[in-house]
Amino acid sequence: MTGSDSLLFECHGAELHIAYQRINTLEYGQNVSRRYAAAILISPVLLLSKSRKHYVTLGYVDAEGKQQALVFRIEKGDIRSVLAALEARTGRRIEYQDAEARKAGKG
Questions:
Q1: Residue ranges of the alpha helices (H) in the chain?
Q2: What distance in Å separates the CA atoms of residue 58 and residue 33, rounded to the nearest whole number?
Q3: Which strands form 67-74's sheet, in the order they lie side by side?
Q4: pLDDT given for residue 19 in this prediction
Q5: Is 97 strand, coil or helix?
Q6: What is the pLDDT of residues 29-55, one digit of tens each?
């Protein structure tokens, strides 16, 4: 999130650039959103985990005009700064899944 115009995600040698202006939804919670859960594959082992995980779901429109979504797991110590940076760069408000997520995200 160091770029002023776009979010850069690098993974296994691949890069994905998403212009902040194309991001249209931001959601934070301690569960993957039900709206997007069907779109991602989760290891059954993760479903049995008791520890709290912090997820940010980012919705955006790709270069072809299609709605896309990414789900990021964020470390507990980083969640507040990530949420603040996303709100500032996109101009969008974070949607919180529930009161517990709001409390964790705003501290």
A1: 34-37, 44-47, 79-90, 99-106
A2: 11
A3: 67-74, 54-61, 23-29, 95-96
A4: 95
A5: coil
A6: 887 655 444 444 445 444 455 567 899
Alpha carbon distance 99, 14 (integer Å): 36
Q: Strand 23-29 relative to strand 95-96: parallel, antiparallel, unpaired?
A: parallel
Q: Which of 5, 19, 98 is nearest to 52 (CA)?
A: 98
**Mean pLDDT by groups of 10 residues along the chain of 107 residues:** 86 91 94 52 49 87 93 91 94 89 74
Instruction: Report the alpha-carbon angle 51-8-11, nearest 5.
Output: 60
The pLDDT value recorded for residue 32 is 61
Phi and psi (nearest 5°) for 33? -55, 140
- CB-facing half-sphere around the CA of 69: CA atoms within 13 A: 17
